[in-house]
Amino acid sequence: MTAESRKPAPCPVRLHWLQSGRITEVPAGTDWLTAARQAGETIPTGCLQGSCGACDIDVDDEVVRACIAAVPITDSGKTLAVGLCSDPYW
Description:
The protein has one helix and five strands. The protein has one helix spanning about 30-40, and strands at about 10-15, 25, 55-60, 60-65, 80-85. The chain has a five-stranded mixed beta sheet, with no helix packed on it.
């Protein structure tokens, strides 16, 4: 058995999608675009490299570039509030 195979599975993180009111769970480390797609949510994208800002989301009052970030590990039982940022130029 290798050290890699002994790693515990990522803990689930609860997400509250503010636009729809949906609450979903994904493993910590899931990229934000995948988490949104699995929840039936749409995050706008542009460059998919993190430079244009089209994919900015608000996660517990912090702006996150969804195309280059992953759902963080959180305290057990904590729910992250996820909202879309609005940019008048996009």
